[in-house]
């Protein structure tokens, strides 16, 4: 069971996973060594699965951020899933979901032309509804 200190540690690491254990300890009122021990326990128990970075996609040339609801009329989803595996440059996440649609894709594209090409190819495997992110 996680206590209040563990939750504060997770909150701090979520904001800055590069924080030193000494700094983390100060923020949660522990020594650096005690904070490191807590973090190690959270890692060992699987609560912390890994660390990551936040990348500015626009600065990398990915100007379009889109969510695409996927509708498949049959229970045979393999053609769609096979197609999606070939598009890993554009797909951030492919979530199988409940509700009206079967999946929701989170994607990035460098241009409207490439988005259009992706959608034309996608339409051979599934119907879709597109939403483009305007602002975060």
From TrEMBL:
SMART domains: HTH_ASNC. One of its GO terms (cellular component) is cytosol. The keyword Transcription applies. Pfam families: AsnC_trans_reg (PF01037), HTH_24 (PF13412). GO terms for molecular function: sequence-specific DNA binding. The keyword DNA-binding applies. Residues 2-63 form the HTH asnC-type domain. GO terms for biological process: response to amino acid. Coiled coil: none annotated. This is Lrp/AsnC family transcriptional regulator. The lineage of its organism: Bacteria, Bacillati, Bacillota, Bacilli, Bacillales.
């Amino acid at each position: 069971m996680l206590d209040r200190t563990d939750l504060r540690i997770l909150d701090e690491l979520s904001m800055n996973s590069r924080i030193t254990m000494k700094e983390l300890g100060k923020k949660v009122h522990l020594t650096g060594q005690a904070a490191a021990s807590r973090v190690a326990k959270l890692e060992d128990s699987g609560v912390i699965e890994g660390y990551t970075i936040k990348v500015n996609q626009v600065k990398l040339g990915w100007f379009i951020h889109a969510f695409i609801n996927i509708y498949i009329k049959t229970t045979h989803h393999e053609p769609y899933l096979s197609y999606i595996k070939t598009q890993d440059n554009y797909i951030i996440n492919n979530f199988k979901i409940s509700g009206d649609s079967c999946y929701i894709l989170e994607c990035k594209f460098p241009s409207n032309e490439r988005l259009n090409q992706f959608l034309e190819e996608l339409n051979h495997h599934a119907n879709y509804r597109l939403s483009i992110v305007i602002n975060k």
